[in-house]
Amino acid sequence: MSSNTSVNCNNKYNSKSTKKSNVLLVEDSEFVNNAIKKELDGLGYDCMQALSLEEAMQLLKENVYEFIVLDLHLPDAYGEKLFLAVTTHSDAKVIILTSEQDVDIRNSLFKFGALDYVLKDKNFIKSIHKIDDMINSIEANKEFSILVIDDSSLVRKQIEMILKVRNYQLYLAQTAQDGLDMLENSEIDLVILDLELPDIPGLKVLQRIKNNPEHCALPVMILSGTNDPDLISSVLKGGASDFVHKPFNIEEFTLKINLWTQLSNKKNEVHCLEQLLTQYKSILNDRNMVMKIDKYGVIKEANKNFCDFFAYNKHELIGESCDVLHNDAETFSTFLNKLQSSRDKKKKINMNIKKKDGNTENINLNITLIHNNKGELFEYIIVYG
After folding, report:
1. Residues 268-297 pLDDT 10s
2. pLDDT class for 46, splitting at 50, 70, 90?
């Protein structure tokens, strides 16, 4: 992204969805069901409730839901049978409610496409907010692209099933060359690379990615069935970001993907803020006439346009009271004091400003109050003109 490109930090890298989803809650405990509904209703979700599979099936016939929060233990169904009955009649993404004793069932349901789970333990009520976190992360994943390079159709299909339900953009390649071509022609955020490829060894593919200036910072997750510590060491020293053994545990795999997604989003947020900072500096340096003063009215900065217009050298202003520029100093000081006590972060005012030669100019002032992370005022930015 070039420095003169307009940046919107509230678009791609904002993890919070503005549109809330339709959610079906399927839980036979009225207390738990109502607790979840109360929390999600408060967050803006549109929730319907079912206490049994029969009730859930009727609601699924009548409505379309984007998410289903599903208890694995209902009076009329249980476990995999319950999960398949629901997903056969709905394309909604399923978040499982389960106990710690359901580890084997949880793992099998991941294979069928379960999105995630929330444990029904002693801290369950406090954990309900995790459902909102899951849904928001799913929305953010739509902007994250993953390239999978693996010659095994079985592995590719498994990864596709796991990641598609989480809304990732996927590119699937059977050979190393296909993967490298996709990398050149697509915007990729993460590469999942098999070490044992038929055309080019995975280690050489990794080297080619890391030796390319355009892709060298791209995270690469290695998949392999090897237990050779020397090979694993070579891969990590060669620039791989992570190593996953085949066959992999689905929950562990998705957690690692989530971590890389979050890290990538944080890096992109920082990049976005850097671009905004560049624009901010550009405003201070180039736009109209700009001055910064501290909360006591002492001049901290004045740009070239300001100094030229008022015929001052910069060193004549820095450290001086801003009253030197105002014919009616009392009025300006009073205005600043009022501004500090108000809730306004921006204010416009018209004043007579005194030039170095004593002449005055009637000019508009656009004043922005800047606060620190404690909410305390520490400076003003004033744009004249």
Report:
1. 778 767 765 765 665 555 557 888 888 888
2. very high
Residues 6+ apart with CB under 8 A from 315: none
For residue 105, the SS3 value is helix
β-sheet with 67-71: strand ranges across: 46-50, 22-26, 67-71, 93-98, 116-119
Helix (H), strand (E) counts: the chain: 14, 17
Where on the phi/psi map is residue 109: left (φ > 0), alpha (ψ -120 to 50), or beta? Answer: alpha
Q: Which long-range contacts (CB under 8 A, 24 or more apart) does 6-13 make?
A: 7/272, 7/275, 7/276, 7/279, 8/272, 9/269, 9/272, 9/273, 9/276, 12/143, 12/268, 13/143, 13/265, 13/268, 13/269, 13/272
pTM of the complete model? 0.66
User: Coil, strand, or helix at residue 367?
Assistant: strand
Ramachandran angles phi, psi of 349, nearest 5°? -150, 150
Q: Strands, E, within the chain: which ranges? A: 22-26, 46-50, 67-71, 73-74, 77-78, 93-98, 116-119, 145-149, 169-173, 190-194, 220-224, 242-245, 289-294, 299-302, 346-354, 360-371, 377-384
- Flag whether pLDDT at 252 surpasses 50: yes
Read off the amino acid at residue 336.
L
Query: What's the sign of the alpha-carbon dihedral 4, 5, 11, 14?
Result: negative
Cα angle for residues 266, 251, 30 (degrees, 5° grid) = 95
Cα atoms in the 13 Å half-sphere on the side-chain side of 171: 23
Measure the CA–CA gap between 24 and 56, rounded to whole angstroms: 8
Token readout for 106 is: 């949880």
Beta bridge partners of 381: 292, 368
**Three-state secondary structure call for residue 323:** helix
Distances in Å between the alpha carbon of 219 and those of 93, 180, 243, 259, 342? 27, 14, 11, 11, 48
Of 277, 300, 295, the residue nearest 341 (C-alpha): 295
d(CA 151, CA 202): 11
Q: Is the dihedral of CA 73, 79, 85, 89 positive or negative?
A: positive
3-state DSSP: the chain helix, strand, coil percent, rounded to 5?
45, 25, 30
pLDDT at 133 over 90: no
